[in-house]
Each structure stands twice: as structure tokens, then as C-alpha cells.
């Protein structure tokens, strides 16, 4: 009970003295004046934004496929052990290697997502 009270007191003391920022409103006339310029800018950048979204979606799909390939590792172990009498050693070793490299490929794909969102397809 004392521990919870101490934690609550520390949380209140840590957040109780923080100043809340005041809201600042923008003049509606300024919004009306800037809207046509914003529309022209949006029309000009539309192809680049669409290309970035498409490359980002492909990068996320590649990362998901690499994550799925991690399941090859236990499948390869099963193939090597249970499929040994049936000639499953070679495909099992291949699946173990592919499943073992999949986490590194997935990490690479996830690290490359910001680059993909800029429109570069890696």
C-alpha cells in the first residue's frame, strides 16, 4: 500500500508542475487566402506522394514475407530429423539456412522503410 502511494505521489509531483501550452487560433481569413496555394502544392506533389506510398507498401510487404520466412527454420529442423530416411536432409538444410537469414532480412527491410517511403524501391 505504501509503495503504491509513493508511486502515485511521484507521478503527481512529476506531472503536476508542467505548464499546459495555450491554444492559438489562426485567423479564418488567412486560411481562405492560403487554401488555393495549398491546393496547387497538393496537386504538384501528388505523384511523388503516391509513388512514396506505393514503395512503402511494397517494402512493408517484403518485410512481412521475410517475417513469414522465419517459420522455415523450425520446418527445416523437422525436415532434417523426420525426413532424413525419406531424403529430406538437403531441402531441410536449405530451409534452415533460409529461415536463419530471414530475421536479418526482415530487420533490413524494416530499417529501409523510411527510404521506401521517399519513393526509392529497394
From TrEMBL:
Highest taxon listed in the record's lineage: Bacteria
Record-given protein name: Uncharacterized protein
Organism from which the protein derives: Victivallis lenta
